[in-house]
Design goal:
Blueprint: H1 12-24, H2 31-44, H3 56-93, H4 97-111, E1 116-117, H5 118-125, H6 129-139, E2 144-149, E3 156-160
Antiparallel strand pairs: 1-3, 2-3
Helix pairs in contact: 1-2, 4-5, 4-6, 5-6
C-alpha cells in the first residue's frame, strides 16, 4: 500500500543546503529522512510555560543537555562496574594481606645490615607498627629472630635467619 506523499516548495539554495547536510551526515539516510526527523523533532519538543516555540538556542541547549545526561549515565555505569570489579578483587585478595605484609617485612629486613626495629620497618613500609610487630611475631623462629635491643630506644631489633 502506497503512503501518501507531501510536496513542499523551497528555494533551490535551501534544498541544496538540506541535501548536502543529509548526504554528509551518517545520521540521515537521505533528504527525505532528514525532513521527516526534523518535523517529528519539532512536533515532539516541549514548549515553555507561555506555549511559545523553543528558539534554536533553546533547542541546541536541550540537545546538549540530553547528550551530557547520556554521557553521565554511561560514566556512572562504568564507575559502578569498576567498583564491582574492585570489590571482587578485594574479596579474592583479602586473605592474602597478612602474607603480603610478611613478604614486605622480609624484604625490608633483607636490605638492612644490622636489623631493624618494628617501628623502623613500619616507617619504611608506611604501615602500622602494631601490624608489623604482629607479622614479625608470626615469622619469629621461621625466618626472623629478635636480635638485640636498640641502644638508643630500647626497642627490639629484628634480623633474618641466614643474614642478608
Amino acid at each position: 500500500m502506497a503512503r501518501p506523499q507531501i510536496n513542499i516548495r523551497v528555494e533551490q539554495e535551501r534544498k541544496d543546503r538540506w541535501k548536502e547536510a543529509a548526504t554528509e551526515s551518517p545520521e540521515y539516510d537521505g533528504l527525505t529522512h532528514l525532513i521527516r526527523l526534523a518535523v517529528e523533532k519539532e512536533l515532539a519538543e516541549d514548549t515553555d510555560a507561555s506555549d511559545a516555540p523553543q528558539t534554536s538556542a533553546d533547542a541546541a541547549s536541550s540537545d546538549m543537555l540530553r547528550e551530557v545526561k547520556g554521557n553521565t549515565e554511561r560514566i556512572e555505569d562504568g564507575v559502578t562496574d569498576v567498583k564491582t570489579r574492585l570489590r571482587q578483587v578485594e574479596e579474592r585478595v583479602g586473605g592474602q594481606s597478612e602474607f603480603s605484609l610478611r613478604a614486605a617485612v622480609r624484604e625490608t629486613l633483607r636490605a638492612a645490615e644490622d636489623g631493624l626495629t618494628a617501628g623502623q620497618i613500619a616507617a619504611r613500609l608506611n604501615a602500622k607498627a602494631a601490624d608489623v610487630m604482629e607479622a614479625l611475631e608470626g615469622m619469629e623462629g621461621d625466618t626472623t629472630y629478635p636480635a638485640e635491643d636498640d641502644p638508643d630506644t630500647g626497642d627490639t631489633r629484628w634480623n633474618l635467619f641466614g643474614g642478608v
